[in-house]
Specification:
single chain, about 450 residues, alpha+beta, two-stranded antiparallel ribbon, 13 helices, about 45% helix, about 10% strand, globular, disordered N terminus
């Protein structure tokens, strides 16, 4: 049960289990619970945020779905001014927009603007609305403080999204999709083609093993597979069926290879149009460069190379206890960027590069092969961060270093807050290299 607080405005009820901001604490009683609440949801005034577009008097929280969206309108005191559920078709969206525009000074807060909320957020931005991206993790934390034992429903989610937008000062403002989004779309398509090729080659190997004694070699091209298949003339119905299926797979492989060639050319052209020099790094091709630019977006959102390494998962997790000081492998962070750095490390180890010499020095220091590889990936993370930061300063077209990038550039994982020590493993990376790793591939 709540009680009406004398210091609060009328119709505002305070929970007896939580300290009220308008009441002074009793003598000798610490405000620990209230302090924890302020840490989770800081009660900073929207006007003190320092954002270019300051928070308005009304926040519209949106819980988006594929075919519907639930909204709740609150003011600066978290009083509910309106709520509703609308479809995401043309009529439903226009009704939702009209309901929001009943409030002159407004701002929209959409959950998951890099995922399921993208279609709603982009339509609102295109209509001239101010939209903030609320990560699902933050809205889930805010839901803990709601009534109803934190049950997850669409109205509760919309309220949590609005509260997070009201109380959080560093949310990303959504902007119209730019070059980084196009790069992400193209590199996703390129990765799908790569997986399709791997599956086709695997099935082809299985058939050739039944047709040719010993099968085919591991790395198989369509031309090599066709030449090998031409040496086989089975007479039984099973052998003929296997040969026909293998011929179909070879035809599919040729088609996939052509699509991969076109995709690589498109990625190369688009990456070069951004002015990025990532492709000059040994081990970074058009697909890797596009993934780095597309997923990272605005590189200035990282406070330093340690922050960037924490976000991509190359920084270890501090697992120290007492006098024992150790770190363990981090499996958090952006795994797509981590994969790009891993491929970059493997390519450098196959060639005479500074990366391979650095790896061998770590082995000479007594590190295991896995620890040396992790240290190399951490070093390469610093190299990528330095180059992207230098590109941003050189191009002067935006903080992200690519054409059209701004402080609010859309990028996957907008809040890089991985829980790691942001240190190197197994030793800190030096600020200088005896031979720079920025060698042309």
């Amino acid at each position: 049960m709540g009680s009406l607080c004398r210091g609060c405005p009328p119709q505002v009820w305070c929970d007896s289990l939580m300290a009220c901001a308008c009441r002074s604490p009793r003598r000798g009683v610490a405000q620990e619970g209230y302090a924890q609440l302020k840490v989770a949801l800081p009660s900073r005034r929207p006007s003190d945020r320092g954002r270019g577009n300051q928070m308005g008097q009304v926040v519209i929280g949106v819980d988006p779905h594929k075919r519907s969206a639930t909204i709740e309108v609150i003011d600066q005191r978290e009083r509910v001014l309106g709520k509703g559920r609308f479809g995401t078709d043309t009529d439903g969206y226009q009704a939702m927009l009209a309901a929001g525009r009943e409030h002159t000074d407004r701002i929209w807060a959409v959950e998951g603007c890099s995922g399921i909320g993208r279609h709603v957020a982009q339509r609102l931005v295109a209509d001239g609305e101010t939209v903030l991206d609320v990560p699902a993790k933050l809205s889930a934390r805010a839901r803990v403080f709601s009534t109803g034992q934190g049950r997850k429903t669409d109205p509760v989610d919309a309220h949590s999204v609005a509260v997070v937008a009201l109380r959080t000062s560093d949310l990303r403002q959504v902007v119209v999709d730019d070059t980084t989004v196009a790069l992400r779309l193209l590199v996703d398509r390129r990765d799908q083609l790569g997986r399709a090729r791997t599956e086709a080659v695997s099935r082809l190997h299985h058939l050739l093993l039944e047709l040719v004694p010993g099968g085919a070699k591991k790395f198989l091209s369509a031309q090599q597979a066709r030449a090998l298949l031409n040496t086989v003339r089975p007479r039984d119905v099973v052998g003929k069926t296997r040969r026909w299926l293998a011929s179909e797979l070879i035809h599919e492989l040729v088609t996939i290879d052509k699509k991969i060639k076109v995709a690589n050319a498109e990625l190369t052209e688009l990456v070069d149009s951004t002015g990025s020099r990532l492709r000059t790094l040994h081990g970074i091709g058009p697909s890797g460069a596009a993934r780095l630019i597309g997923d990272i977006g605005d590189v200035s959102r990282f406070t330093g190379r340690g922050h960037f390494a924490s976000w991509n998962g190359t920084a270890p997790i501090d697992a120290s206890s007492g006098d024992q000081n150790r770190h363990r492998l981090s499996r958090a962070g952006n795994r797509r960027i981590n994969r790009v750095l891993h491929i970059m490390a493997v390519v450098q180890l196959r060639n005479d590069t500074e990366g391979r010499r650095y790896y061998r020095r770590k082995l000479a220091e007594g590190k295991t092969t896995m620890e040396a590889m992790r240290a190399l990936k951490r070093r390469l993370s610093d190299v990528v961060y330095r180059l992207m930061t230098a590109d941003a300063k050189r191009l002067r077209t935006g903080p992200g270093g690519q054409v059209g990038a701004t402080l609010q550039s859309g990028a996957a994982d907008p809040n890089p807050k991985a829980d790691t020590s942001e240190k190197s493993l197994p030793g800190p990376a030096e600020d200088h290299l005896r031979t720079p790793l920025l060698t042309a591939s």
